[in-house]
Design goal:
This protein is α/β, with parallel strands linked by helices. The chain contains eight helices and twelve strands. It has one domain (2-255): 3-Layer(aba) Sandwich (Rossmann fold). It has a six-stranded mixed β-sheet with strand order 6-7-8-3-9-10, sandwiched between helices. A four-stranded antiparallel β-sheet has the order 2-1-4-5, covered by helices on one side. Strand 9 (208-213) and strand 10 (216-221) form a beta hairpin.
Length: 260
């Protein structure tokens, strides 16, 4: 569970995050949307412990984030950024993914059976079985994105933060990501927060939706509370919305014709 109290952050005397108050519960998939520059990625970075000079309070399972060491944060929070490539090593897919469990590995000991099992579970779930012995740097950008997503899940932390995870994913990969997210929160002891520019992806998977504007939370709702008027208000775009007949979730089908 995450509690955010009066979170404010400024850079070069410009406010990036403004007085944010929010609660993220275990077993929830939370979606954060908003126009570019609304503060979504900064918000995720703050929760991940990447921002230090902020005002307010971030509590992770009732512990103040500022009191946790980098190692303690690593064991509690996983973050995948949009263009995260710095951690990629020229190794096989399996060995690279197994390294996601290194924070649980005892010095001079091999990886445990649990580490291997969790790694293999997500290799199967993300349909990477046929690629696990391939060298990472020989693979396409789309496959690489799927591997980085799997690596984040394999860390198995209490809090999972994803920044634009659906970007550059084909339809099948998006479906696999949705299955992985549902599996991740299934036991009721983990929290997921996703920032995304893919509105349909968020509308289809999120339990709670937060709309950010000018560095603050302007609206908190669920998928049932999203309509064409709200999309127009926050994204300045005319759209046509339909509803899934099975789950009632909205789907942005196409841009409305606004020409006379």
């Amino acid at each position: 569970m995450i509690n955010i109290n009066s979170l404010t952050y400024k850079k070069d005397d410009i406010y990036i995050l403004k007085n944010i108050n929010a609660v993220f519960h275990d077993s929830e998939i939370n979606g954060i949307i908003g126009e570019s520059g609304s503060g979504k990625t900064y918000f995720l970075n703050a929760i991940a412990g990447k921002l230090k000079d902020y005002d307010g309070e971030i509590l992770i399972n009732n512990e103040n984030l500022n009191t946790l060491s980098a190692k303690e944060i690593e064991k509690q929070i996983s973050l995948l950024l949009t263009k995260q490539t710095s951690d990629i090593i020229d190794d096989t897919v399996f060995n690279f993914l197994l390294q996601s469990r290194k924070m649980y590995k005892k010095t001079f000991n091999p990886f445990s059976d649990i580490d291997i099992q969790i790694t293999e579970d997500y290799i199967r779930l993300m349909q990477l079985d046929s690629l696990k012995d391939k060298k990472i740097l020989t693979l396409s950008e789309g496959i690489l994105k799927r591997i980085l997503i799997a690596a984040t899940f394999i860390k198995d932390t209490d809090t999972l933060l994803l920044d634009n995870p659906a970007e550059n994913l084909d339809l099948n990969s998006k479906m696999l990501l949705q299955k992985a997210l549902i599996k991740y929160v299934m036991n009721g002891d983990k929290t997921v927060i996703i920032s995304s520019n893919d509105l349909n992806f968020i509308l289809n998977i999120a339990d709670k939706i937060i709309i950010m504007k000018d560095g603050g939370i302007d609206l908190e709702t669920n998928s049932g509370g999203i309509n064409a008027e709200i999309i127009k208000k926050y994204f300045k775009t005319e759209v046509l919305l339909s509803r899934n007949i099975y789950n009632g979730r909205p789907l942005i089908q196409q841009f409305a014709d606004t020409e006379g």
